[in-house]
């Protein structure tokens, strides 16, 4: 399987018995993560369509098959709408939405030939369900992923391929830590569990969608957020 770096997804799939290939623009961390799971690392910029195509071909040539894609790459810089430049918009949409398309398109083509595949996208609660000041472009990219997923599920259902998404809430990754202490503290307070998620929480959801047994689930998403999106009453969090 190819997965675009997330420690939790890598670890959970490795534990479940998958041979893991990590593709990331960050060579140092990606290489290290692949060694931890006796996997393989490939340097990849998901915005580069030709490289995405070459990488999938290389995997098929070397491994003979390509069963699972976890399209997880994403950035979440914060910028308010009136300060948002065209460059800000394009960068986030290029990596999160076009990058997801670039790698997923090639994976679907390869999986169709074999008549089997599991594609798992990492979307978010932000955009499809909630809003966050500064994340309008990000939210648009994450909602866009789900729009893509539903049509892709229809196009590939008859080829034994499912495509589903995970919608994480707040998961303690390097990217989330970079939002700063105030963000982390404030967010903990609005999650009913009073905890941020662990990367492995996303990994277990990925294992579920990646399994052979979930063949009858496609075009769906699962929220993994410790109940963050649930409260409706003012004192809903105890
Ligand atoms: N951490 C969280 O609370 C949440 C994360 N997500 C999503 O989960 C995914 C992973 O996020 P995190 O692990 O938190 O972020 P992170 O910042 O810790 O990791 C993102 C990874 O993407 C890689 N990357 C960036 N640009 C790339 C490119 N052009 N080509 C290839 N790789 C590239 C980075 O090198 C890094 O390894 C993202 O899609 C994010 O939107 C969704 C909801 C919540
Ligand atoms: C980054 C993101 O999507 C969050 C924290 O919901």
UniProtKB/TrEMBL annotation:
Pfam families assigned to the protein according to its UniProt record, in alphabetical order: adh_short_C2
Entry keywords, A to Z: Oxidoreductase
Tree of life domain: Bacteria
Family matches, as InterPro entries: NAD(P)-bd_dom_sf (IPR036291), SDR_fam (IPR002347)
Enzyme class per UniProt: oxidoreductase
Enzymatic reactions: (S)-acetoin + NAD(+) = diacetyl + NADH + H(+)
EC number: 1.1.1.304
Gene Ontology biological process terms from the UniProt entry: bile acid metabolic process
Any one GO MF annotation of this record: diacetyl reductase ((S)-acetoin forming) (NAD+) activity
Similarity field: Belongs to the short-chain dehydrogenases/reductases (SDR) family.
Functional summary from the UniProt entry: Catalyzes the irreversible reduction of 2,3-butanediol to (S)-acetoin in the presence of NADH.
Entry protein name: Diacetyl reductase [(S)-acetoin forming]
């Amino acid at each position: 399987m190819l997965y675009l770096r997330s420690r939790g997804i890598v670890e959970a799939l490795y534990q479940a018995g998958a041979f893991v290939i990590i593709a990331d623009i960050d060579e140092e961390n990606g290489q290290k993560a692949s060694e931890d799971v006796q996997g393989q690392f490939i340097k990849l910029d998901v915005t580069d369509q030709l490289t995405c195509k070459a990488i999938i071909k290389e995997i098929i040539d070397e491994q003979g098959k390509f069963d699972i894609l976890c399209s997880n790459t994403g950035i979440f810089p914060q910028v308010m709408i009136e300060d948002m430049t065209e460059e800000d918009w394009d960068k986030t949409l290029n990596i999160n939405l076009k990058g997801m398309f670039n790698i997923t398109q090639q994976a679907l083509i390869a999986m169709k030939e074999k008549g089997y595949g599991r594609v798992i996208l990492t979307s978010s609660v932000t955009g499809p369900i909630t809003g966050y000041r500064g994340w309008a472009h990000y939210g648009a990219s994450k909602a866009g992923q789900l729009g893509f997923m539903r049509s892709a599920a229809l196009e590939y259902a008859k080829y034994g391929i499912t495509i589903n998404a995970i919608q994480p809430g707040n998961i303690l990754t390097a990217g989330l830590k970079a939002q700063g202490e105030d963000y982390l503290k404030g967010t903990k307070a609005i999650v009913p569990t009073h905890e941020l998620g662990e990367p492995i929480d996303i990994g277990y959801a990925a294992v579920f969608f990646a399994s052979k047994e979930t063949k009858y689930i496609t075009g769906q998403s699962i929220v993994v957020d410790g109940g963050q999106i649930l409260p409706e009453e003012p004192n809903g969090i105890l």
